[in-house]
Design a protein that fits this description.
Layout lengths: L3 H8 L5 H8 L2 H6 L5 H14 L15 H8 L20 H9 L4 H7 L6 H4 L11 H11 L17 H10 L2 H6 L3 H9 L5 H21 L1
């Protein structure tokens, strides 16, 4: 049987050690939730690797040094944060400040949507982990699903002992084994992300993972 660790080694050779170790210890967890059949495993891995830049990103990248790049990502007309040109100087090389401006109390509408109610919540609950979960409310939801207090200890979402569990719980809560059995990447992507962002890239990644899995299976 092809393991997720073998797939990671081939399709995500630059994955950070935390994720590598989480996957290495995760076969039993995946098996317990039925994510061990080839099609299910390939779809699951597609989603988490797309979210994390093939396993290279623990938390959302918020360190900008160029004004143009920051405005292209979060500026007026490009993002609901609508950062103005005159704000940029104070947000360059300032991850915490940028997180608070975009996701925290500096952006009240977004803060309400994410459940970020306290100063510093924008940074504390920035996108993190295998599904780049963001927002206090979503960390609280995962805490209830997984039985681990990610809300009180948000760094656990990238702890090797707990990093895989939120993605598995979100997958199962969405009934995504059934969608994977239908080979329905559209339904899977929409359930996990709320939209279809990066669908073409996800399709390409899925094709690559399936090809590697087939090769590993033949060599076994």
């Amino acid at each position: 049987m092809v393991t997720i660790s073998a797939l990671i080694a081939r399709v995500a050779p630059d994955a950070v050690p935390v994720y590598v170790r989480a996957f290495a210890a995760g076969d039993a967890l995946l098996r317990a939730h039925g994510i061990n059949q080839p099609l299910r495993l390939a779809h699951f891995l597609t989603q988490v690797l797309h979210a994390t830049g093939r396993g290279t990103m623990l938390f959302e990248f918020l360190y900008f040094t160029a004004p143009a790049r920051l405005l292209a990502r979060f500026g007026e007309g490009n993002h609901v944060a609508a950062i103005r040109a005159e704000e940029v100087a104070g947000l360059l090389r300032n991850e915490r400040g940028l997180a608070e401006r975009v996701y925290g109390l500096g952006n009240p509408a977004m803060a309400r949507e994410l459940g970020n109610s306290e100063p510093g919540d924008g940074w504390r609950y920035r996108g993190g982990g295998l599904l780049q979960t963001s927002g206090r409310a979503n960390f609280r939801r995962l805490s209830g699903l997984a039985g681990v207090d990610y809300e009180a200890n948000p760094d656990l979402i990238v702890d090797r002992a707990y990093a895989l569990l939120p993605a598995v719980q979100a997958w199962c809560n969405g009934g995504l084994n059934i969608a994977a059995d239908r080979n329905d990447i559209v339904a899977i992507t929409r359930t996990l992300t709320g939209g279809l962002n990066g669908l073409a890239e996800r399709r390409d990644l899925f094709g690559e993972i399936r090809a590697v899995a087939d090769t590993l299976a033949l060599a076994a």
